[in-house]
Automatic annotation (TrEMBL):
<dbReference type="InterPro" id="IPR021269">
    <property type="entry name" value="DUF2848"/>
</dbReference>
<dbReference type="InterPro" id="IPR036663">
    <property type="entry name" value="Fumarylacetoacetase_C_sf"/>
</dbReference>
<dbReference type="GO" id="GO:0003824">
    <property type="term" value="F:catalytic activity"/>
</dbReference>
<protein>
    <recommendedName>
        <fullName>DUF2848 domain-containing protein</fullName>
    </recommendedName>
</protein>
<dbReference type="Pfam" id="PF11010">
    <property type="entry name" value="DUF2848"/>
</dbReference>
Amino acid sequence: MPVLHFSLPDGHRVAVEVRALLNAGFAGRSQDHVAEHVAELVAMGIPAPTKTPCLYPIAPFLALQSGEVYAQHSRTSGEAEWALVITRDEVLLTVACDHTDRDLEVHGVAWSKQAAPDMLGRQAWRLADVADRTDDLTLTAWVRSSGEWTEIQSGTCAELLPPEYWIDVLHAQKLHAPGTVLLSGTIPMKKGVDQFADAWRVELGDPLTGRTISTEYHVRRLPDPIA
């Protein structure tokens, strides 16, 4: 099982062995907007979920803190998210980027998420320390193409179902245990920005303290198969 390492604002470091990795999907706070998004995806040939929100179990080894993602083709991209990390003593909150195979997505969302890693930040906050203002926390993502960074996502965590919702789900599913990592689902992407970029950077921000947590990685295209 992979082990993730997090630095906390007070200087403590926490190591977490990932035993369960879960990706939330169609997790917008407004389920009316989610329904509109599902209709758009169906028009693109992506299968509709039977209900929303969704929770996709992903192989734990796909939880990474790395500067690189390896992709087999050019149609993969990230998604700005927050992540809950359950430790033996508390719940941590950090930034995440759910890298996804968009070509595989038309065959199944779960398959597309299993084909690429979830990238997590190396810093975290105790959820208890920000629980009274999680809706105010910001999520921002940038993509890099030809050496230029362009903002592709920008919003607040109020656009997504709150951590408390997912903690209740984890308890109900008997998954609230040390080593569980849950990603939140994402906010809308800006139209006209090419998501199929050679690098992604995602930032979780706390306007009250000015603190930020970020993750950044390059997308490395694998060579074509030798056959």
